Amino acid sequence: MLRAEGVCVSFGGVRAVDGVSLAVAPHGTLGIIGPNGSGKTTTFNVLTGEQRANAGRVTLGGRDITGLAPHRIARLGLVRTFQNLRLFPNMTVLENVLTGGHLRQPRALWRQLLRPPGVAHAEAVERERAAALLEEVTLADRMHAYASDLSYGQTKRLELARALNAEPLILLLDEPTAGMNDRQAREILELVRAVQARRQLALIVIEHNVPELARFVDSMIALDAGRVIAAGTPDEVVRHPRVVAAYLGQEAA
Amino acid sequence: MLVARAGWPALAGIVLLIAIPLMVTDRYVLYVLNISMIFAILAIGQNIITGWCGMLTLGHAAFFGVGAYTSGLLAVDHGWPFLACFAAAGLAAGLAGALLSLPCLRVRSDFLSLITIAFAQMFFVVVNNWTELTRGPMGLPRIPRMEVFGWTARTEAEIFWVIGGVLAIVMFAVHRLVSGPIGRAWEAVRDDENAARALGINVTHAKVQAFTIGCVLAGFAGSLYAHTLRIVAPEMFFLEESLIIMQMAILGGLASLPGSLLGAALMVGIPEALRSGNEWLITLRPGIGGALLLAMMIWRPQGLLGRLRDAPPFLLALSAALRGLFVQRSRR
C-alpha cells in the first residue's frame, strides 16, 4: 500500500538517504533497523512529507504523494510518532488525544460558534472516544494532568494514543522504546502489537531493540550510511552478513 | 437551561453586568470600567493570537485604530447607524489582519511580529497625514453616541450596558471557540507545529484564523472606543498602546479569558487610581505598568491567571534574562 522507490536526500554534500526503497502491504508490519545516523528518521521524514527528497517517489495506494505537505499526507492516513517526543506540553492528556482526532471534528467557525445539537454531540462522542483510547494505553487515571507532568513511559503511551485517534491506515513509530529499560520496552511493544492486531493497521517501526522487533514484524530492512543493505524477513535480515558487520563494526568502534 | 449549559460564572457575569451601573453611582468610576471593558476585548483578541496560538504581534493598536477610524468615518461622513459602523469596523480590521498575516504566516511566524510593527507605524503615518480623509492630527470629532434600534446610550450607565453586553458576547463566543477543536488546533500549533502538522492540522490556516479573529475583536473594540470617547486621533493608536495591550494579555494570563479581564482592569485601573496632584505620582505613573510586568516576568511568567504550564519561549527567555539581571544580582 505504501511504497517508496529510490528515495535520496542530501544535506550539503552528505547523502543521508541514498536510494532507499521500501514497501508495506495493508495490515503489514515493517521494521527498519540500522546504526545511528544511517538515515532511518530521514526516511520517515520523507514518507511523512517533512523532508523533501532530492530524488525518488513515494506512493500511497497507487497515488503519488511525493512532496505533498505534511498535513495533507496525514489526512491520507499516514500518521507518525517522533523519536524525540513531541507532545503538546501545555495541554492536558485528554486534550492531546482529542487533538489527534482533529480531522474528524466539526471545525467550521460558525458551527463552533452556534453549536447546533450535532456539534455538541460530536464533541461528547470525541471525548468518550479519547477516554477509551486512554483506557487502552492505561493512562485513564492521568486524563486531566498536563502532558508535561507525565513520566517518560507515560508520554510514549500518550503519543501512541494521540496518533491512534487520528485513525491511521499506516502508523509510523520512530523508536517507540528509546530510553526505556527492557521491561518497559517489552510492555510498550506488547501494547503496539495488541493495538495493531485490533485495528488491522499497517505499521512501520524504527527500533534499535532488534530481537524484540524481529519477533513481531513480518518484514524488515536494514540501513547503513543511507543505503538499504538488507531486506527480507526478519530472520534473513538479522543473519545477513552485512547487517552483522554493520552492527558488530559499530560495537567494536 | 442557560445556567446548566453555560454554568454559574456566566449567570453571575450577567447579574453583575446589569447590577453594577445601578449600584455604582460615581460617573468617573463607571467611565473607567467602560474603558477597561473595551481594553478587555482588545486583550482577549491579543490573547487569542499570543496566548492560544503562540504568535508574537506588536501592532494590535493599529487594528484597534482601523476599527475606530472605520466606525467613526462611516458615522460622521456617511451617517451610517452605529450597528452598521460596528460591524464594518470588525470587518475592516479582520480584513486587514487576514491580508497582512497570510503572506507572512506562509513563511514563518517570526516575520509577523516585525510586519505588525511596520503596519502599526504605517497606520500612524497614514492617518496622521491623509488629512482630507482622517482630519490628520486634529482628530475626528463629533462621532455620534452608540445607538441600538433607536435607543441611544447617553449616560455612563447606559454605555456600560452596551459595552458590557458586547464583552459578554465576545467572552461567550471565544469560550466556545477555545474549548472545541478550533482552540485545540491553535494550542497544538502553539506547542509544537511539527506535531500538529503530523496530525493533519493545517498550521497556516490555524494561524491566519487566530490572527484574523484577534483583529476582528480589535476592530469591534475600536468602534466602541470611537463612539464612547466620541473623538478619535492618531496618537490614540500609537505603538505604545500595542505594548499596553500585550502587557494586559500577559499580565492577566496567557490563554485565559478571566486573565484578560483582570489584565485590562489592572492596566487601566491602577494608573487611574493613582491619578492625583502629587508630583512624584505623576512622574511615577507611566512606570507602574512596566514595574508590574517586570515583577511578573520574573516570578510568574505565565501571568496571574495563566493556564499555560510553561510560558512561550520568547517570554521564558525574557523572564530568564530579567531574573538574571535583577534577582540574582540583588542576592549577591
Would you kindly provide a written description of the structure presented here, covering whatever features stand out?
The complex is a heterodimer of chains A (253) and B (332). Chain A has 253 residues and is an alpha/beta fold. Chain A has helices at 40-47, 70-75, 93-100, 109-114, 117-136, 152-165, 182-199, 210-214, 234-239, 241-252, and strands at 2-11, 14-24, 29-33, 55-60, 63-64, 78-80, 170-174, 202-206, 219-224, 227-232. In chain A, a hairpin with a 2-residue loop joins strand 1 (2-11) and strand 2. In chain A, helix 3 (93-100) packs parallel to helix 6 (152-165) and helix 5 (117-136) packs across helix 6. The termini of chain A are far apart. By secondary structure, chain B is mainly alpha-helical. A two-stranded antiparallel ribbon of chain B has the order 1-2. Mean pLDDT of chain B is 87; it is low at 328-332. The interface between A and B is medium-sized, with 37 and 29 residues.
Give a concise summary.
The complex is a heterodimer of chains A (253) and B (332). Chain A is α/β, with parallel strands linked by helices and 253 residues long.
